[in-house]
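Preliminary data (for renewal application), S-adenosyl-L-homocysteine complex.
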Amino acid sequence: MEVTAQVFLKPKKEESLLRFHPWIFSGAIRHIIGNPKEGDVVEVYTASNEFIALGHYQIGSIAVRILSFDPVDINQEFWNARIRRAFEARAALGLTNSATTNCYRLIHGEGDNLPGVIVDIYGDTAVVQSHSVGMYLSRDYIAEGIKQVYGNRIKAIYDKSEGTLPFKAGLNAKDEYIFGSAIDTPVLENGIKFNVSWEEGQKTGFFLDQRDNRELVGKYSKGRDVLNMFCYTGGFSLYALAGGANSVDSVDSSKKAMDMVDRNVEINFGINHNHTSYAEDAFEHLRTIDGKYDLIILDPPAFAKHNKVLNKALLGYRRLNALAFHKIKPGGILFTFSCSQVVTKEHFRNSVFTAAAISGRNVRILHQLTQPADHPINIYHPEGEYLKGLVLYVE
Ligand code: SAH
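Predicted structure:
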């Protein structure tokens, strides 16, 4: 892609870039030579006219997302090389050639030095999701890079950016196959089968970021009565069943999600099982369950999507966790999560701590959880750490 403009920073505003932070905020810009459109590739210069980075131009508070700190051409080779490096990192994790897991995140935005795009692999299908116009306009390069790296192992590429692009950009993006067509087979995660619908489901179809945490639930489930709250397609429930739970109840307010849970239970365990589905509000359900469960999972949707609603979100986490502390059996284990990016580890821990104190129960922290290694955090972009979890032993 051609460079269309030069962005010049105010004095000292290059400091975060010297530490390789991948964003430039609009307030850091002194002037622009050229007239870039949203999504164009622009060069960035310091106040003393030295090249410092290049990236995708955006209209909004983040004005440039950095693609490179070197003056390189953003051509097909660039995309191939970045995608290959992401692939090699997943190969090092044993994810690209595993007999038991064939779904994983190939590209995690800033974590893979490609801010504004994620790519998830589900068997033979790659799902690309752009969060910036620059990445959306690069989707043919990205698709070609995926094909170059995987060869004929990838048979379809689905672009699911309709709901994630900046609304104002007016691109009229449509979710669609940009290569191949629908392949309808369940994926495997740690040997457990899941029907994943990237066309209709939330995110890219599945919450790949809970893989390791689901495995831990499996390890604690033997003989326990498990409640999986906000279960979506039943990820935690299936691991609990596989781990030998005495019973598993799954709750989600979405009827569609609960139908998926039932199908997922059936393809793994048949119809004679100890699993019950509830299409119900989580808060309502929690009120009715005195002493029934000795393992509870709380994995709610992000309560805060931006900073303005942070306090309200923290109260929400406190209220939800307080209910679970009140209701869980003595000796129970609580898995509790927050996936809100603006809620820090400390915020979350404080909310859960307050909830525990309100309940008056004796609580130990057994594990502190985060996102898995295929959702890496760029060390220069600590904001990329978004998933937080605590495993608690409740006396
Ligand atoms: N734990 C899931 C992901 C959870 S996503 C997994 O491992 O795949 C959050 C889910 O919460 C969504 O499926 C959404 O439908 C559900 N949800 C949102 N608000 C809810 C509420 N008040 N009660 C019950 N479920 C709710």
